[in-house]
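Colleagues,

For the teaching module next term, I've prepared a clean inverse folding example: a structure given as tokens, and then the sequence designed for it. I'd like students to try predicting residues themselves before seeing the answer, so please don't circulate the second half yet.
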């Protein structure tokens, strides 16, 4: 059975219904409407691929929170956690955009932060609109940050805070190209994949806890 992401129904229904409407109008004496009808059908097919949400089995260690390519492994300053190790994943439109918990733990908070919409691969995208999910885990407090990009202007959390985090389970969706970062305490995770690696949410082991 094919599964589609929660929050995707309007995006799937709108183009296919409009395509059917224009296609019908084209058969009723308005043939010029065939081109937009076909274009909308192609958009529908794209969304079928984009909003797919396959079942997955969680990896050992620290699981990737997102599909995409590793764009950075560095050190940053966070206002709550202080100095942190950051693991950053860029999600292209071809990737599955449902995000998953990287570790077991407890959801401390889910905070929406308004901001801009510059390309998610840009270093200044840290100031984009984002949703920050804070977790208490066996390696300490961590943050998983969903960052909107130029096209992806909506992040859909599946959680509110207070829930139990289960590694590999879904916790939210980012629509279209975007980015997902993990912030952890310095030295708490030994990262297992290099920059440029394609990773998959839930199933790719991106690191191992050091403590």
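(Answer key — instructors only)
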């Amino acid at each position: 059975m094919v599964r589609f992401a929660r929050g995707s129904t309007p995006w799937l229904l709108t183009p296919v219904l409009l395509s059917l409407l224009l296609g019908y109008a084209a058969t009723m004496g308005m043939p010029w409407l065939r081109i937009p009808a076909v274009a909308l059908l192609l958009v529908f097919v794209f969304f079928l691929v984009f909003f797919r949400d396959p079942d997955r089995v969680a990896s050992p260690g620290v699981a990737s929170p997102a599909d995409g390519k590793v764009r950075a492994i560095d050190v940053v300053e966070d206002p709550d956690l202080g100095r942190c190790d950051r693991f950053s994943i860029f999600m292209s439109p071809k990737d599955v955009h449902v995000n998953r918990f990287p570790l077991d733990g407890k959801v401390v908070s889910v905070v929406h932060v308004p901001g801009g919409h510059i390309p998610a691969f840009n270093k200044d995208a840290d100031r984009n609109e984002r949703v920050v999910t804070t977790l208490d885990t066996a390696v300490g407090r961590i943050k998983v940050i969903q960052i909107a990009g130029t096209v992806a202007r909506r992040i859909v959390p599946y959680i509110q805070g207070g829930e139990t985090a289960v590694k590999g389970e879904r916790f939210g969706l980012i629509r279209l190209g975007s980015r997902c970062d993990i912030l952890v305490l310095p030295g708490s995770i030994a990262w297992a994949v290099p920059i440029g690696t394609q990773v998959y949410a839930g199933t790719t082991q991106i690191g191992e806890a050091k403590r």
